[in-house]
Amino acid sequence: MLLEIDYHSGVPIYRQVMRQIRQQIMTDGLKEGDQLETVRDLAARLKVNPMTISKAYSFLEAENLVERKRGVGLFVTKVKKSQLTQIKSELFDNIINKAAITAIQLGVSEEQAIEFFKKHYNDYISKQRRQK
Amino acid sequence: MLLEIDYHSGVPIYRQVMRQIRQQIMTDGLKEGDQLETVRDLAARLKVNPMTISKAYSFLEAENLVERKRGVGLFVTKVKKSQLTQIKSELFDNIINKAAITAIQLGVSEEQAIEFFKKHYNDYISKQRRQK
DNA sequence: TATGGTGTATTAAGTAAGTAATACACTATA
DNA sequence: TATAGTGTATTACTTACTTAATACACCATA
After folding, report:
1. pTM over 0.85
2. Within 7 Å: CB of B55 and strand C?
């Protein structure tokens, strides 16, 4: 699995690991039942202590995205598609809610706000295309 | 000036102070040239060390929202309306950009996203109305 | 049941952030 | 120029977070 860690960004390693694995589960790069890379293997590859990886995995377990089988390994939880959709919705709902509140507090109209959103949405998509 | 501090939220006191004062400047609750509450007064009122307040004020100064006159006090910076608008734009731009990126990464379509936004926008406005 | 592969609990070291204590510096003005 | 009111620099305490070291616990299976 491809994982990019920036050791000097100040962002904790275990959070970088979490975010990237979560992302892969969300986008089906990692699927139901897939085994995650071994704690020790990943730790060795990233040149980091096993506990750091274990910690990342623990948080993912708390989010119900992975399950541990002690002595065996960690696996992507078998969740119903609807459940995954719900998790995504919550994530999205949360940030879009913040954006809406910020808009109102700053006196940005609904129409203006939507204009901004469209702009960023399409900018990001173009940017992704260019990178391929 | 009304300031509500939650001492147990885990959010640093100086950040709570910053956010609320910034908000008041943005929404004209505090206007150009107004003097901020004295470091010592506010510290005493919030039962907190003066340096904590000073720190909050320092960050607001770095944002160019307030100016210090040592030995005199702190005052809301006289900024041109256009400048204030720009600060607001940056704030808003930032969060709406995050929302757009999240949408794309989660596979939410532009139309869906805008639906969500409208919903939250109007929900929040209704909520505000009810509170008055 | 022994072994080698899994993950984990406990403990501790290092660092950064938040807050506070204290003494100090600047300004207006009586 | 003395004083009372402003903010500040320095220092240090406390706490939480991140990571690591070490020894341990669980499981499959030869």
Report:
1. no
2. yes
